[in-house]
Design a protein that fits this description.
alpha+beta, four-stranded antiparallel sheet, 4 strands, 26% helix, globular
Length: 77
């Protein structure tokens, strides 16, 4: 069995209903929570428009599956 890549896992988290968007406002602030696979309390994640930075409280470095799930439902093209 192969390990999921970050994109596939992000889509799975989204389709399993693990992501909750808490705030999305006109200034660009996004706040959400996402339940991972570990059974730990949900991760806090979102976008800070002042810092122009996506953030997640999980231990991953760089783009994590939680942020992939969030970006799938919040990023405008």
């Amino acid at each position: 069995m192969s390990r999921e890549n970050v994109q596939t896992k992000g889509r799975r988290l989204l389709t399993e209903g693990r992501l909750t968007v808490l705030v999305m406002n006109d200034s660009g602030l996004i706040a959400a929570s996402c339940r991972g696979d570990s059974g730990e309390p949900p991760y806090a994640l979102g976008y800070d428009p002042r810092a122009r930075e996506w953030r997640c409280t999980c231990e991953a470095r760089g783009l994590c599956s939680h942020l992939v799930a969030l970006k799938l439902v919040t990023v405008r093209s």
